[in-house]
Design goal:
The protein is 0% helix and 55% strand. The chain has strands at 3-7, 10-13, 18-25, 34-39, 46-51, 57-59, 67-72, 77-82, 91-99, 102-105, 109-114. The N and C termini lie far apart (40 Å).
Length: 115
């Protein structure tokens, strides 16, 4: 079955950096678009970044220039390098993929940025 397991979240000061990881299994990693989303309780999940099978990337305006999405196909792992973090980046971050006709989510990892 498809599994997505995020890690790397934590507490960081404004201006700091974190790298999130998403270990995946159960589908052909690299052949499907895969994404990072984030969500504040009570709000809808927001698309942060995604990477296509071609390697083309997309970023939300709010993170463009600060975040970098990358993948290691040999490890079936997705990354999100987050630099110059701001308090408004505080959220639960999820990786997500559409496979076998439905969208799958990981359990999420909390990122908290203090001012």
């Amino acid at each position: 079955q498809v599994q997505l397991v995020e890690s790397g979240g934590g507490l960081v000061q404004s201006g700091g950096s974190l790298r999130l990881s998403c270990a995946t299994s159960g589908f052909t990693f690299g052949a499907l678009p895969i994404s990072w989303y984030r969500q504040t309780p009570g709000n809808e999940r927001e698309l942060v970044a995604d990477i296509l099978f071609t390697g083309h990337t997309y970023y939300a305006d709010s993170v463009n220039g600060r975040f970098t999405i990358a993948r290691d196909t040999a490890k079936s792992t997705l990354y999100l390098q987050m630099n110059n973090l701001k308090p408004e980046d505080t959220d639960v971050y999820y990786c997500s993929v559409i496979a076998r006709g439905r969208r799958f989510w990981g359990q999420g990892t909390q990122v908290t940025v203090s001012s």
